[in-house]
Design goal:
Blueprint lengths: L1 H12 L3 H17 L2 H6 L2 H17 L12 E5 L17 E5 L3 H6 L6 E3 L10 H17 L2 E5 L3 H7 L8 E3 L29 H11 L4 E5 L30 H9 L3 H24 L3 E4 L24 H4 L4
Parallel strand pairs: 1-2, 1-6, 2-3, 3-4, 4-5, 6-7
Length: about 325
């Protein structure tokens, strides 16, 4: 009954899409963890207040991340296949945020990411593959010293399975939808110690986190989006074959139809939303004297200014060389 009440409240709140599912799931899980005596004593409204306070306590600890890396640059590793043609060993010693399975690539190339981020609920599913995924992610975080960042809905899964005890995750709470705001000026602060607008993908959320942490330059890698051009073939990834599921054996269009119920026009509309969301985050960055760049060698991300990846690591030309001096 209480769980139904929680879900109904979120449906009535106007929160949409993934943000609504994550918030409702998180609050429902917290309610279920309350003992029977508490349920007998507290009204549904009181239970909602208790759940909200517990959620607030999970995200309040992110305050110490605010502006931690002010003036530095970072690289966000998304899972597009374009990174297969790039030498990521250049990123050794750089601040790296890796999303989803890209921690596999950081291990392979000897990188020490500062953050590993997951957003999709699917990764917290009770299957052998995804259980192994979380165990491998935990090992990667422990060995690299990276923060792990999850949506609040993952908290109960992590607690119930006894995961990340040596490296407790950070959590964030998405509410609403980024593109529901008319312009970049209307978007509330991207405050990971409070709530943030819901983002369409984990890479968008990683950008928001990088802005919150104060990076002055943020470079995107592996944001290709060209699976819509080759929708009859499986999606390739920058970490290689997926060892946790068989999604990379299914043609892209069929994968999204099976998982999300999207036909091809809907898939195109979703990708268009992704592009608009990247553009919106680009505008938000510029408004705070931060910069977002696209360092992919190809792909469809044309709503963010491009910077050639290799040029970011070329040694500066000395004045003596320019003058032709020995």
């Amino acid at each position: 009954m209480i769980a139904n009440r929680v879900t109904r409240v979120w449906h009535e709140s106007g929160v949409q899409g993934t943000a609504r599912r994550l918030a409702a799931w998180a609050l429902t899980k917290i309610v279920h963890r309350c003992d029977r005596a508490a349920r007998a004593l507290l009204s549904p409204r009181s239970m909602m207040t208790l759940a909200s306070r517990q959620t607030a306590s999970l995200i309040a600890g992110n305050r110490d991340l605010a502006d931690r890396y002010r003036g530095q640059r970072c690289f966000i590793l998304a899972s597009g296949p374009s990174t297969l043609s790039q030498d990521l060993t250049h990123l050794r010693g750089e601040c790296v945020i890796a999303v989803n399975e890209m921690f596999l690539r950081t291990q392979r190339d000897g990188l020490k990411p500062i953050t590993l981020m997951i957003q999709d609920i699917e990764y917290f599913g009770d299957t052998p593959g995804y259980r192994r995924f979380l165990e491998d992610l935990e090992f990667a975080a422990h060995s690299s010293g990276a923060d792990v960042v999850f949506p609040v809905g993952a908290h109960c899964v992590v607690t119930e399975r006894g995961l990340f005890r040596d490296n407790p995750p950070r959590y964030y709470l998405p509410v609403g939808r980024l593109l529901n705001y008319p312009s970049a000026e209307d978007v509330p602060p991207l405050d990971f110690a409070a709530t943030i607008p819901g983002m369409p993908t984990v890479t968008h959320t990683a950008i928001a986190l990088a802005l919150f942490m104060g990076f002055s330059e943020i470079y995107l890698l592996g944001v290709d989006l060209d699976f819509i051009v080759n929708s009859t073939t499986p999606i390739r990834h920058g970490y290689g074959a997926n060892p946790y599921n068989e999604n990379d054996r299914v043609p892209a269009a069929a994968l999204f139809a099976n998982k999300m119920g999207w036909d091809y026009p809907t898939l195109l509309a979703e990708v268009a939303d992704h592009l608009r969301s990247y553009a919106r985050l680009h505008e938000i960055a510029a408004s705070s004297a931060q910069r977002l760049y696209n360092a992919n060698p190809g792909g469809l991300l044309e709503t963010v200014e491009r910077r050639p990846y290799e040029s970011l690591f070329q040694p500066p030309v000395s004045r003596r060389t320019l003058q032709g001096l020995p």
